[in-house]
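Residues determine shape. Take a concrete instance:
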Amino acid sequence: MAHTKSHNNNLATNSTTQGAWSEQEIARLCELYNKFPHQWAELARRFDTRNPKQCRDK
């Protein structure tokens, strides 16, 4: 299935937080990463406010 630019944009912005990570978010990301290393989709699901790309890039 081909992904369109608008589809990819929706994945990145659909109910996610934009901008800088708070100290609390970073601490939570580190904690979750220790439980689920390199499982970006799983991390994002548990985060609710960040998508897999944001988690990976942080």
Confidence is low (pLDDT under 50) at residues 3-13. The radius of gyration is 12 Å.
